[in-house]
């Protein structure tokens, strides 16, 4: 039985990195007889340019019909000044997350031993780092209504957004996090701002409630400002962290950067049934697009995650991850992770090396 | 003419650290004939215990009548479970900020050369670090209405808060930030999430608008997730950063922790006229309260900031800062900044040393 994989190259370095991941997927598809059907569609700025909207109907239909989605990255200054806030690349990404109910965002921050020096933190602070951030992805202030810019008396404009979560939304992301903790070191830190924001008082209450179903998991709570501090001070204290959409956006980027090699980190966004969209943690990096400087490994590792979690091909995923580890052992490095004594390679040369290692 | 200084010890380590700062203030008051009248009042958990509310009327009246306020810190687990959200220590702090319109929060993140090793970041990444974070303190999601927990159909509860800023609020904090940049390296980075949140689209627009009045200042914009990353990756790229209440809470704590010595960092919260409340960047640290472990230097440096910005005693402030530098040169360290070869001292011994140096 064939499986449909939708590929969304997106903007900036998206097309380059996705090209390499696609080569890897095509190779393992043949080698391991996976029966994958790969198709591509437009999302983000590329879709705005071609069709006038960031998430064309055809893309949404293809996404719904697919078994899994691999995304490059979206966004860029070209579309940032569009006066219509709905016609921006990010709206395409947010639309697909929301329409497909991909509420469970898993963002690992792992330090690769071969890249230990790449971190700006001292080796003893980050060596062996392995955190999983579970971010709620289809609710919170990203999607809350009402929102907009309105006029008050006197013609003064006021911008407003709504940070909202209901019990069910909190419970379902909580469950993802507790399950993830069960499969790891059984420690879960829930991040909120319950000393100021009522919405996170409810968040904390539901997490406490869920903890009764997972007596083996040690649940702790941390205010978001303290969490940002603790990530810098002693990141290895964390196993799994769970938080809302906005705090998760900030903390997962900070955590990823602790490793110094955000070009290496994949992510998964899953719905209730385990169907998902997979993408690198990094952005579309328009400043280096088209120069062969981008690191395709985060996207290749995202493809591996996709094979494991949504396509039932865990062994193929293992092979890809081993191949990535091998090219690092061969001292091959793209510009972002380059260091003395290593050999700098381009985006496509890195893809070549992974293909060769497979 | 005498000047009234209101001292709010607060909770946890607050009373201990404020005691040392008060000794310093009393000494310089005599030495430099400043005519300061020091009085104390209750705020936070201490006020809840004594009066049942976190911000008693008497405290608010005294605060309004004062020329400047020195605060220790508020909060602790003892009051965290209070079912009435209004009767929590933090509400006292937020109340005083709001009632006195202390909208301009200045949070420097400075690396003391004597404490360079204390950072978890590599020396080359943080040496010479000197960032000023300007945080809006009386608006945004901290104070936005409507807010609370309500029931939806089916009895499902939903928590909600409102992130709101009007043009005037944005403009007045922007002005503080541009002025601060003018007095420094003339580079201002405004942090928002304008690709997702409408309220920060307005924020960005007003910052752009203000930039026309400050042609010498180089204004840039950064999304908050990227800002959190850049603070870890290359913090020295920043001079002044300006952002809203919630993002400022998170980023200023992360920035402070980059120095590794949050026990050294003062902060100021100013109103339109320059009247202000001064407090250490760190919290009430209930876990080490009453053990003589707390570092009083951030509070002593906050007192110096107070003398400079609100009490017209800049030379006295210089003297206090020099005294703090001297005790560091004498290798005296409280537990939080202790390292090999240094001499560990208690909270009061550190106070003694500063007093002796003066
Ligand atoms: C592009 C942007 C809308 C997005 C987000 O904020 O969620 C990105 O930062 C991410 O984390 O995937
Ligand atoms: C105690 C708390 C309400 C406060 C805040 O979030 O503003 C604190 O974290 C701070 O930064 O001063």
UniProtKB/TrEMBL annotation, chains A, B:
Keyword 4Fe-4S: no
Positions with a binding annotation for NAD(+): 283-295
Entry binding sites for Mg(2+): 225, 249, 253
GO cellular component terms attached to this protein's record: cytosol
Claim: Cytoplasm is one of the keywords in the record: yes
Annotated ranges, domain Isopropylmalate dehydrogenase-like: 4-354
GO BP terms, alphabetized: L-leucine biosynthetic process
Positions with a binding annotation for substrate: 97, 107, 135, 225
Example of a GO MF term: 3-isopropylmalate dehydrogenase activity
EC number: 1.1.1.85
A Pfam cross-reference name: Iso_dh
Chief site of localization: cytoplasm
Co-factor: note: Binds 1 Mg(2+) or Mn(2+) ion per subunit.
Protein name, as recorded: 3-isopropylmalate dehydrogenase
